[in-house]
Structure formats: structure tokens, C-alpha cells
Amino acid sequence: MPKVYITPHKKIASFFVILTIVALILTIACLIKKTYKTTIIVSAKLEDVEATFDKKISAKIIEKIDTLEKNFSPQSLVKMEDFANGKITIVNNSGQSIILVANTRFQAENGLIYRLTKRTFIPAKSKVRANIRADKIGGEYDINEPTKFVIVNLSPILQEKIYGESKEAIIGGFKETGIVSQKDIDRAKAEIKDELYKKMIEEIKNEFGERNKLAIHSKLINHQCDSKPGEEKSFFNVKITLKVAAARIDENELLKLAQEALSKKIPEGKKLYSVDKTSFRYRLKDYDLDKNIALVEIQIKGKSIISENNEIFKRENFVNLSANEIRDILSENDLIEGVKVKFSPFYVKKSPKLPKRIKFIIRTL
């Protein structure tokens, strides 16, 4: 068999080809190694967070004191019978004076009896106004039309000359009245207070200008009611005296302070996720009218979320782990709802040995 002779030049060329292939393989391996990475996507819970604090500010302050009084009807009504009563005119056309004692009976045209409520003197040829009351309780004793009354104990002759007549209603035999309850009183006080408060705020806004933002303080100075729970009344009276003060404020500055306070409420390992601006509240808690100093109470709410610098996301704890091992570690935290692990390249089954090649992404549910 003939020998194959390779020249030195060909040997050198082959050697360089092999070196090139090895270098290429090493380069590719190095590049692939550099692409090794793990992305851990965490679905985290949101937690409620809120802050309430006081802040002293310099501000123009307006203070007002006003009173409002109104009548109210009880909501509970009671229908009841009573003695009808009213005024009549006693006519004396005789030539002599007459004295009628209390309880003298007067008979109306409908045949019902009414009694004089007190002793009455009627001079001759005169007329006197007097009060009568029904002999019995009941709505049938109510009289709404002009009526002539006969004095029962007089003789028929004197009855023609001495008699009673009414031109106004005699009522009260059947009436509807109210029973004042504590609920009625509370409702009336709240209604007056609200009406008075709105009126005073409108006056203050007119002095400050509609575009100004105000921190408001109100205090009930006095309240009176002429009735007690359980009293029988058709209406009752309530009187309220209110003091209202308002301080002109920079709402944007207060909101900024509120957001800062909210962030400070969040512990290490968590961060502020969102601020609920609709929950932003402030009120004038106290004030110094002479020095124009307002103490404002501020409230705000928001949401916090676990942050990337939380101890649980320490990368050194996640090197050379499978997806299940990673999920097992993270699922122990109550703030984590779900975990998704992505290895790169696709055929890799464990996280890199270098912590810096591990990346965490935190999302909400």
C-alpha cells in the first residue's frame, strides 16, 4: 500500500483549522454561557396603608357664629277624642242684667249640650263673649257653622231674649296631634345644623373667593328644644347656635405632605404602590385666629407592595435551583400569590450559579 506523504505546509494548515474550530466552539460556548439567566416573575398582593397626621400651617382664617331656629312636626301622629270648645256671644235683650254660673247648659241646634266654663255677668241690653265646652268628648260636638244656643234652664219666654250664638268654629272633639320622640328631636337638630352650616360656609366662601380651598372646623355652641320625648304636641321648636371657622390652604402642598407621610408608614422590604387621591381628606382641627396659625388634620390611603429589596429576594438564595425549588421558597411568603420562572436558554433546567444573572419582576394580581 503506497504511503501518503503530507507536506509540512499542509500540516500547519490543518493545525490552524483545528485551532480555529476549537476557538469557535469555545467562543460559542462562552457566548451561550453569558446568555444563561433566570427571570422570576412574582405576583404579589397589595396591602392597604393609610396615614393620619397633624400639620401646623400659616393661613388666613375666618370665623363666624350664627343661630337658626325652626318649628318641626313630630313624625308620629295620634288621633284622639277630646272636649270640643270655643267662644260664643251671649245676647241679653231683656231689661235686666243676668248672671250665669259656671256649667250653665247651652243647647245647640243639633240638640247637643255645651257648658259655660266660668261665671259670667251679662248686663241688660248687652252682649258678652264667653267660652263653652262640650258636655262630653267626641267629634260629633265639633261645630263649623254659625249656630244658635238655647240656655236650658231659662223659661221659654226668657230663652227668646237671652241666648247664645256662635260665628266661629267650636272644635277639638276629634283631633290629630303628634307625639314628640327623641328621633324627631335628633332629626330636627341635624337638619338645622346642616342648614346653618351650609349657609355659613357659603358666606365664608364668598369672603375668600370660590376658587380657594378651605380646611373647615365647626363646633356646636348651643342647642335648645322646647319639648321632651313623649310630649303631645302638634309641633316643637329647635334652636341651634353654631361656630364655623375656615382656613385657606394650598391643597397641592397638603397632598404632597400626605403622600410623604404615607410612604413613611410602609416598613422596610415594601414600597408604596399607589395613592388613592379620592381618600385624601383634611380638616381644620384647631386654630389661632390672632396669629393666623391653623392645625390641619390630614388623612390619606393607598396600597403597598413587596419590594425588590425585600430580604426574601436575596439572589444568593436562588442560585443553581430548579423552578420548583424557587417556587417553594417564595410561596412561603403570604404576600406572594404566584411565581413564574423563566430559564434562558430554553433547555436550561436550573438557575445560574452567578446571582447577578437572576432577575426578579414584581407584578400585582
Describe this structure in words.
Helix content is 23%, strand content 44%. The strands form six sheets. Strands 5-10-8-7-11-12 form a six-stranded antiparallel beta barrel. A three-stranded mixed beta sheet has the order 18-1-19, with helices on one face. Among the domains are: 1-34, no CATH class; 80-176, Elongation Factor Tu (Ef-tu), domain 3. The protein has 365 residues and is an alpha+beta fold. It has helices at residues 8-35, 156-161, 182-208, 251-264, 323-330; strands at 37-44, 47-58, 61-72, 76-81, 85-92, 98-100, 105-107, 113-116, 120-122, 126-134, 147-151, 162-166, 174-179, 213-225, 236-249, 270-288, 293-306, 336-344, 358-364.
Q: How would you briefly describe this protein structure?
A:
With 365 residues, this protein is α+β, with helices and mostly antiparallel strands. 23% of the residues lie in helices and 44% in strands.
Provide key terms for this protein:
5 helices, alpha+beta, 6-stranded antiparallel β-barrel, elongated, 3-stranded mixed β-sheet, Elongation Factor Tu (Ef-tu), domain 3, 23% helix, 44% strand, 365 residues
Task: Give start-end ranges of low-pLDDT stretches.
Answer: 26-32
Mean pLDDT comes to: 89
CATH architecture of one domain: Beta Barrel
Largest sheet: 6 strands, antiparallel, barrel
Terminal Cα span: 78 Å
Strand order of the largest sheet: 5-10-8-7-11-12
User: N-to-C SSE series?
Assistant: HEEEEEEEEEEEHEEHEEHEEHEE
